[in-house]
C-alpha cells in the first residue's frame, strides 16, 4: 500500500463509543501515559509542527483523536493515562472510553498495531506494564517506543535500553524503537513498521 504521509488531517475527535468511525480502513493506535510525547511523535511522523496539539497541561485530553493519513489509514491518539491530578470522574471517563475502543469498537478488526510509548528516562510505569500485559493477554499486536532519547547521552541511552531489555522484556519478542521528536531518531524505522502492519 502506497501512502502519502504528508496528506494528513485530524478527521475525528471521539468522546464516546457512538462516535467511533465505522469504515474498514486500518488503524494504528498510540497508547501511553500523559506527557510521554504522543502528540510530539504524531507531529514528527507526519512532518507537521502542530497538527497534534502538545498540551501544556498533562492529562487534559480525554478524547480519542483520529488522524486521517491519505484516506488510507488512521493514526489513533488514545487519551494519556496515569496523571495524578485528574479527577476521579475524569479518570473513569478515560478508562471507559479506552476500554470501549479496544472492546466495543465497531472497527476493532481494523486495529493493526498499538504503539506503546514509554519515557526512556524513567522506564515503564506500573500503568505501562499493566497496559503491555493486557495487550499480550488479549493478543493485541504492539511495539514499544522509547521516547525522549535526546534527553540522554549516548552512554546513558545505551544503558537505559539495556535495562529495558533485561529488567522488563527479557525472554519476550517485544520490539523497542528508540525515538526522539527533536532529532527524529526512529522516525523511518517506526514508519516501516507501521507500513508493514497496515499492508
Report Rg.
16 Å
CATH superfamily: P-loop containing nucleotide triphosphate hydrolases
| Side-by-side strand order of the widest sheet | 1-3-4-2-5-6-7
Poorly predicted spans: none
CATH topology: Rossmann fold
Class of secondary structure makeup: alpha/beta
Tell me the distance between the termini: 6 Å
Can you name the CATH architecture? 3-Layer(aba) Sandwich
Number of domains: 1
- Overall shape: it is globular
Overall description:
The chain has one domain (8-198): 3-Layer(aba) Sandwich (Rossmann fold). It is α/β, with parallel strands linked by helices. The radius of gyration is 16 Å and the shape is globular. Helices cover 32% and strands 21% of the residues. The protein contains 5 helices and 7 strands. The mean pLDDT is 88.
Features:
199 residues, alpha/beta, Rossmann fold, seven-stranded mixed β-sheet, 5 helices, 7 strands, globular
Secondary structure blueprint with pairings:
Layout: E1 8-14, E2 27-31, H1 38-46, E3 64-69, E4 73-77, H2 88-103, E5 111-119, H3 126-138, E6 142-147, H4 154-167, E7 176-178, H5 187-198
Parallel strand pairs: 2-4, 2-5, 5-6, 6-7
Antiparallel strand pairs: 1-3, 3-4
Amino acid at each position: 500500500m502506497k501512502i502519502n504521509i504528508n496528506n494528513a488531517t485530524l478527521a475525528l475527535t471521539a468522546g464516546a463509543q457512538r462516535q467511533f468511525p465505522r469504515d474498514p480502513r486500518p488503524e494504528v493506535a498510540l497508547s501511553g501515559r500523559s506527557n510521554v510525547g504522543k502528540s510530539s511523535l504524531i507531529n514528527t511522523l507526519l512532518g507537521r509542527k502542530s497538527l497534534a496539539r502538545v498540551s501544556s497541561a498533562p492529562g487534559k485530553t480525554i478524547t480519542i483523536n483520529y488522524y486521517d493519513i491519505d484516506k488510507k489509514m488512521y493514526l489513533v491518539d488514545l487519551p494519556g493515562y496515569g496523571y495524578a491530578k485528574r479527577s476521579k470522574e475524569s479518570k473513569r471517563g478515560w478508562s471507559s472510553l479506552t476500554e470501549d475502543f479496544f472492546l466495543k469498537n465497531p472497527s476493532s478488526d481494523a486495529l493493526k498495531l498499538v504503539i506503546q510509548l514509554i519515557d526512556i528516562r524513567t522506564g515503564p510505569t506500573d500503568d505501562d506494564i499493566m497496559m503491555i500485559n493486557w495487550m499480550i493477554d488479549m493478543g493485541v499486536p504492539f511495539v514499544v517506543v522509547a521516547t525522549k532519547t535526546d534527553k540522554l547521552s549516548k552512554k546513558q541511552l545505551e544503558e537505559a535500553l539495556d535495562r529495558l531489555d533485561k529488567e522488563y522484556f527479557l525472554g519476550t519478542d517485544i520490539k523497542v524503537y528508540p525515538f526522539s521528536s527533536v532529532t527524529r531518531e526512529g522516525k523511518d524505522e517506526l514508519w516501516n513498521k507501521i507500513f508493514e502492519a497496515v499492508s
